[in-house]
């Protein structure tokens, strides 16, 4: 076995970007002249293993045990580490989600292996895996690689690699493995889980519409008695101006740090150096000036549209299309036009 | 009760960073700042140490450039600072880093809680905290958005931690390593007195020998940095009334098959 891929799950469902990891894993395995295996832990693992086969895994390690239903590092890392020790894969690969980074780093430390995060390109030369990754908030690229013959743990950036085409009916060898830790040996206990309302899957989104500080210039009157009329106006603008545009495009809502820090929208929406790094097909920046720290989070978007009333705003320097004007006039017109043209 | 945090200096986020002809990364005469994610971990370290009437220590691993971050930490109110520097330590290999970090925690001996920032804003490795926890054999709780409770007597910790799909509340055991997110607190600014005190502090430097460890064999390395390929985007300005702008933009996006 040579390349081992983490199929991340949540509530018994696969996290879709895992198929990107399998796509990248297959590419690396092909280049190394071997095959790609996957591992799925927790509720519904066997059913998810079938999907992993359809997305290119030739072997899937499955452990459908209650201790692995909620992600907890201890039982997950113990089991991954035992798989790695037994099978000594050349590469262990996952998407760099919170779970993916934590799990792979832990197992890399357990097995004294190398670890490289946030790959956007991968190449193989002999026994060396050459990784291209962005650094300095995307201002530079770096090349990193494994040293020696051990296992390399690798996380990839979401949307940087393509999944394999799904081959319905493809099957894989399924290997059932036992958990390493039983419940009494796990010190971390889950008390509760609170789903994020209106999930903000920014890193997976193909289209993002982001709002900046300028959303507070909403011409709507705040109702009498609200404690902070500016915050009310800004929140209203996110809800009733920015979000409808995102909705008609099937996209997600992003924000600048200025908007987040002012309490206009939650931190989960922040794009930039100290927020999320995104690379959608389309990024629409609304009333965002385009500070370098914001650019750091969105400069790899395929097409950037900037809407700003200030023709000198730096965001226009990096945009493909620029619209000078008031977002409160342009965005509703844009939403209406998209509705018409997309037949919604 | 002893809370330890790790930090380092990073170039100012507004700096123009470039790879020079010699292949080295430079940022002109721009200043370095404390890694921005660490403002939250430093603040949380101070708060947690105060809450428990305990001690606080900050550690940087690497060269003298990191003294700036350590002095900033002292100026904010962390009590002790240590720098770990050793010619045998390749700081681009996380395994080496984690070995050194865990070695320092063991040398301190009485540590209950280690708090890291989310990641290094410059190299974005995002693995040092987890690796350090595993090298210590301690509980690891990442992406913590709130410390709900810590009971030092019974050695338990309850936190809220973030995943892409929402917030998980867990209870676990001390000693623990945690990483904290933006929003967990409002980082304080260093006070004037704090800055004066910090500027006079001498920061002890520990070698790997002082920690009683040697560097592990290198398993991963960064071999080169590159400037971005210049991508000339020519912005196309779309003018007219808002309705005309909207119609043109939609037309162009459909034409370019962006949608
Ligand atoms: C360490 C550090 C980390 C940071 N990390 C991030 C980060 O992760 N993400 C981030 O975004 N920023 C980050 N920043 C902050 C960054 O420097 C900027 O302050 C921030 O991005 C500005 O947000 P903005 O563009 O919304 O606000 P502003 O710069 O105030 O711009 C508002 C824009 O809205 C326009 N406008 C106003 N009203 C309207 C209207 N009605 N119609 C059209 N246009 C209008 C204005 O012309 C202006 O250009 C960071 C800063 C530091 C120091
Ligand atoms: N050389 C270092 N010395 C001290 N702290 C560090 C060092 N490198 C990373 N850290 C801290 O480790 C945390 C995670 O960073 P990273 O894993 O590098 O993305 C951040 O709080 C960093 O400040």
CATH class of the largest domain in chain A: Alpha Beta
Question: Which CATH class of chain B is shown?
Answer: Alpha Beta
Largest sheet composition of chain B: 9 strands, mixed
Name of the CATH homologous superfamily of chain B: HUPs
H/E element sequence of chain A:
EEEHEHEHEHEEEEEEEEHEHEHEHEH
Largest interchain contact: A-B, 97 and 81 residues
Overall number of strands of chain B? 15
Total discrete domains of chain A: 2
**Bound chemical compounds:** flavin-adenine dinucleotide, adenosine monophosphate
If helices are DSSP runs of H or I spanning 4 or more residues, what is the number of helices of chain B?
7
Beta-strand share of residues of chain B: 25-35%
Q: Termini distance of chain A? A: 48 Å
- Order of strands in the sheet with most strands of chain A: 7-11-6-1-4-5-12
Computed CA radius of gyration of chain A, to the nearest angstrom: 22 Å
Helical residues, percent of chain B: 25-40%
The total of helices of chain A stands at 9
Can you characterise this structure?
The complex is a heterodimer of chains A (344) and B (259). Chain A is of the alpha/beta class and 344 residues long. Chain A folds into 2 domains: 183 residues, 3-Layer(aba) Sandwich (Rossmann fold), CATH 3.40.50.620; 136 residues, 3-Layer(aba) Sandwich (Rossmann fold), CATH 3.40.50. Chain A contains 9 helices and 18 strands. The model of chain A has no long low-confidence stretch (mean pLDDT 95). Chain B is α/β, with parallel strands linked by helices. Chain B has one domain: Rossmann fold (3-Layer(aba) Sandwich), CATH 3.40.50. Chain B is built from 7 helices and 15 strands. In chain B, helix 2 links the parallel strand 6 and strand 7. In chain B, helix 2 packs across helix 5 and helix 3 crosses helix 4. Chains A and B meet through helix 3, helix 4, strand 7, strand 9 and strand 10 of A and strand 3, helix 3, helix 4, strand 9 and strand 10 of B. Strand 18 of chain A pairs parallel with strand 15 of chain B, so a sheet runs across the interface. Flavin-adenine dinucleotide binds next to helix 6, helix 7 and helix 9 of chain A. Flavin-adenine dinucleotide (FAD) binds next to helix 6, helix 7 and helix 9 of chain A.
């Amino acid at each position: 076995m040579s390349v081992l891929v983490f199929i991340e799950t949540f509530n018994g469902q696969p996290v879709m970007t895992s198929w990107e990891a399998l796509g990248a894993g297959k590419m690396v395995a092909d280049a190394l002249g071997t095959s790609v295996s996957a591992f799925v832990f927790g509720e519904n693992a066997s059913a998810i293993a079938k999907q992993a086969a359809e997305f290119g895994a030739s072997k899937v390690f499955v452990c459908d045990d209650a201790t692995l239903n909620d992600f907890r590092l201890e039982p997950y890392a113990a089991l991954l580490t035992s798989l790695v020790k037994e099978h000594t894969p050349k590469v262990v690969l996952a998407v760099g989600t919170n779970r993916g980074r934590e799990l792979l780093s832990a197992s890399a430390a357990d097995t004294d292996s190398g670890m490289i995060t946030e790959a956007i390109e991968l190449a193989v030369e002999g026994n060396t895996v050459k990784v291209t990754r962005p650094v300095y908030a995307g201002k530079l690229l770096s090349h990193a690689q494994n040293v020696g013959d051990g296992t390399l743990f690798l996380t990839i950036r979401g949307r940087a690699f393509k999944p394999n085409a799904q081959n319905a009916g493809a099957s894989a060898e399924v290997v059932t493995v036992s958990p390493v830790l039983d419940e009494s040996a796990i010190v971390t206990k889950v008390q509760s889980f609170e789903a994020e309302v209106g999930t903000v899957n920014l890193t997976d989104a193909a289209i993002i519409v982001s709002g900046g500080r300028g959303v507070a210039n909403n011409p709507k009157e705040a109702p009498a008695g609200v404690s902070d009329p500016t915050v009310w106006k800004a929140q209203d603008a996110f809800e009733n101006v920015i979000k409808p545009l995102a909705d008609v495009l099937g996209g997600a809502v992003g924000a600048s740090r200025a908007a987040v820090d002012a309490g206009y929208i939650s931190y989960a929406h922040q794009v930039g150096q100290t927020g999320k790094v995104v690379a959608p097909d389309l990024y629409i920046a609304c009333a965002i000036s385009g500070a370098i720290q914001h650019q750091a989070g969105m400069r790899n978007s395929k097409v950037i549209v900037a809407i700003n009333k200030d023709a000198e705003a730096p965001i226009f320097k990096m945009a493909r299309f620029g619209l000078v004007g008031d977002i409160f006039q342009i965005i509703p017109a844009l939403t209406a036009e998209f509705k018409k043209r997309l037949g919604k | 009760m002893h809370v330890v945090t790790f930090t380092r200096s990073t170039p100012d986020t507004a700096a123009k960073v470039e790879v020079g002809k010699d292949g080295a990364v430079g940022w002109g005469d721009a200043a370095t700042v404390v890694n921005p994610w660490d403002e939250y971990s430093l603040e949380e370290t101070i708060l947690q140490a105060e809450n428990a009437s305990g001690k606080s220590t900050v550690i940087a691993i690497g060269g003298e450039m990191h003294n700036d971050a350590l002095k900033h930490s002292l100026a904010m109110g962390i009590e002790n600072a240590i720098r770990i520097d050793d010619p045998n330590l390749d700081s681009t290999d996380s395994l080496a880093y984690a070995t050194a970090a865990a070695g320092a925690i063991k040398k301190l001996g009485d540590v209950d809680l280690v708090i890291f920032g989310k990641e290094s804003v410059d190299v974005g490795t995002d693995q040092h905290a987890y690796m350090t926890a595993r090298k210590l054999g301690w509980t690891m709780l990442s992406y913590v958005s709130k410390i709900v409770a810590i009971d030092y007597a019974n050695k338990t910790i309850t936190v809220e931690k973030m995943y892409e799909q929402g917030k998980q509340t867990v209870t676990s055991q001390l000693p623990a390593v945690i990483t904290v997110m933006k929003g967990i607190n409002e980082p304080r600014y260093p006070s004037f007195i704090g800055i004066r005190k910090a500027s006079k502090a001498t920061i002890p430097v520990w070698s790997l020998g002082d920690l009683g460890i040697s560097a592990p064999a290198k398993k991963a390395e960064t071999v080169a940095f590159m400037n971005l390929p210049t991508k000339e985007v020519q912005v196309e300005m779309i003018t007219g009334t808002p309705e005309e702008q909207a119609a043109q933009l939609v037309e162009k996006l459909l034409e370019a098959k962006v949608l």
